[in-house]
Amino acid sequence: MGIVPRSTFAGMQLVGVEEAQTDLRRAYGEKHNLDPSLLFSDLDEMLDTVKPEAVAAFGSIRDHLRVVECCAPRGIHVMVEKPMAISVADAERMAALAHQHGIHLLTNYETTWYASTHEAIARTSDVAVFGKIRKVVFHDGHPGPVEIGCSPEFLSWLTDPAQSGGGALPDFGCYGANLMTRIMGDAQPLRVTAVIHQFKPDIYPRVEDDATILVSYADAECVIQASWNWPVSRKDIEIYAERGYLVAMNGRDIRARMGDKAEEHNETLPPLPAPLNDPFAHFAAVVRGDITLEPYDVAGMANNVTVVRILEAARQSAQCGQVVTLATD
């Protein structure tokens, strides 16, 4: 599942690490001075030996289902990295196992720990003040995983469509799909249209490095621009409603304007308080019952199954060049 660089985390203690590759397991164990007794080559062996309360999965997206299949019957809670799964079939199987065995299944996104994300959702949910949301635009990505220096072992699966589900589309398209699902609540997406590009085939010969996804709702639209071609790293949101707009420029800075004659207001937010500011602290708080996830919470299963539905529809749309209609209950 990958080697993590600490033996202690906020609210958690590391008791075991599974990594199938012997050289990688040894190298990272030595790099981070981990006790060799913590390192395992087989997930089932690790789970039965150390009996963890919770597991965080940092391997390929394809492996997420395997982790839940191993953990759920043992009553072990799971947090996976975004996106939740490589396909809708896998996502639904993971959710079914979590429900059947009564475990928490969370998905981790960097933007979950942004103060600006929480503030944007809170402010724009007040329909009486902000009005109905009509359009949301997401810009997510960076210059490219090779360009920013991602490790060879990370690149080996991140740029393999069989392990990651694609390139920039799942890697950064999931952020917009995740937050839009939270913003829209019970309103489900109706149609998805996507266009992908391969601007750097010499660097990323097997996957797309740029994607634009349009997600249509009954009375709102979402534009997701996911790319490994931005000149700088970015994760920002533009929310436009009937009576104003709000832009979350980064983790803490927002700007907003209410009404056509009002001036734009800029604000730097304080950091989020613990445990909302850290994935491990938050995971521990959920497992121990200190936090109850809200419906369509950004970390929750319902939200992230919808995210995978949007991503799968986007892949289909890009491949066939047509709008994909999503089934509604």
Q: Do you know the CATH topology of the largest domain?
A: Dihydrodipicolinate Reductase, domain 2
**Main β-sheet description:** 9 strands, mixed
Give the terminus-to-terminus CA distance. 35 Å
Low-confidence stretches: 1-7
Helix/strand/pairing category: alpha/beta
Provide a compact summary of the structure:
34% of the residues lie in helices and 23% in strands.
Description:
The protein is of the alpha/beta class. It folds into two domains: 8-109, Rossmann fold (3-Layer(aba) Sandwich), CATH 3.40.50.720; 111-271 and 296-325, Dihydrodipicolinate Reductase, domain 2 (2-Layer Sandwich), CATH 3.30.360. The protein is 34% helix and 23% strand. It contains eleven helices and 16 strands. The strands form four sheets. A nine-stranded mixed β-sheet has the order 15-14-13-12-8-11-10-9-16. Helix 4 (88-101) links the parallel strand 6 and strand 7. The longest helix has 20 residues, at 301-320. The chain starts with 7 loop residues before the first strand and ends with a strand.
List the main descriptive attributes of the protein structure presented here.
329 residues, alpha/beta, Rossmann fold, Dihydrodipicolinate Reductase, domain 2, 2 domains, nine-stranded mixed β-sheet, 11 helices, 16 strands, globular, disordered N terminus
Give me the secondary-structure topology:
Layout: E1 8-9, E2 12-13, E3 17-18, H1 22-31, E4 39-40, H2 43-50, E5 54-57, H3 64-71, E6 77-81, H4 88-101, E7 105-108, H5 115-124, H6 127-130, E8 133-141, H7 152-158, H8 161-164, H9 168-184, E9 191-197, E10 210-216, E11 221-227, E12 234-241, E13 244-248, E14 253-258, E15 265-268, H10 279-287, H11 301-320, E16 324-325
Parallel strand pairs: 3-4, 5-6, 6-7, 8-11
Antiparallel strand pairs: 1-2, 8-12, 9-10, 9-16, 10-11, 12-13, 13-14, 14-15
Helix pairs in contact: 3-4, 4-11, 9-11
